[in-house]
Amino acid sequence: MAEKSDPNYKVIAENRRARFDYFIESDLEVGIVLSGSEVKSLRTGQSNIADSYASVEGGELWLINSYIAAYKEAGVFGHEERRRRKLLVSRRELSRLWQATGREGMTLVPLVMYFNHRGRVKLKIGVAKGKKLADKRATEAKRDWNRQKQRLLKQG
């Protein structure tokens, strides 16, 4: 990730539930095709990627069901809030993602949307496998134990 002193780096939206619901095998930084009103809305921090997913369709990678709030100053030149947005990846990465989803039964989950050090909107997607209920319970128990351990260390 970028350094904290970088003035342009800013997290826009984070899918915190993804690491609870999925085993993240690998992640990949991708670009995203946006209109001007979408970028302006993202600068105000009004977006949500928690319910969205990525899919390879027709030889292209798409972000589906992501929410970017309407930018009211755009008026009639605004954008649709939940439209499909094209993601930008190399051909090699696209074929790797297509294989992972098609053959191996993986899911493409957006993890973080952010402005990089150059001020461009980037999306980090994870190639993930879904967790079963028992795995989720184990993750929650481990997290609770780590919290309790930190409390005990802080007190002692």
Can you tell me about this structure?
This protein has 156 residues and is an alpha+beta fold. Helix content is 30%, strand content 34%. It contains 4 helices and 9 strands; from the N terminus they run βαβαβββββαββα. It has helices spanning 18-21, 36-43, 91-102, 133-155; strands spanning 10-14, 22-32, 47-48, 53-57, 60-64, 67-68, 85-88, 107-115, 121-130. The strands form 2 sheets. It has a 7-stranded antiparallel beta sheet with strand order 1-8-9-2-7-5-4. It has a two-stranded antiparallel sheet with strand order 3-6. A hairpin with a 2-residue loop joins strand 4 and strand 5 (60-64).
Features:
single chain; 156 residues; alpha+beta; 7-stranded antiparallel beta sheet; 9 strands; globular
User: What share of residues is helical?
Assistant: 25-40%
Low-confidence stretches: none
User: What is the radius of gyration?
Assistant: 18 Å
Give the topology string: H per helix, E per strand: EHEHEEEEEHEEH
The outline comes out as globular
Treating each run of at least 4 consecutive H or I residues as one helix, how many helices?
A: 4
Q: Which assembly state applies to the chains in this document? A: single chain
Distance between the termini: 33 Å
Question: How many beta-strand runs?
Answer: 9
Q: Which secondary-structure class do the elements indicate? A: alpha+beta
Mean pLDDT: 87
Proportion in β-strands: 25-35%
Q: Describe the biggest sheet?
A: 7 strands, antiparallel
Q: Which strand order spans the largest sheet, edge to edge or round the barrel? A: 1-8-9-2-7-5-4
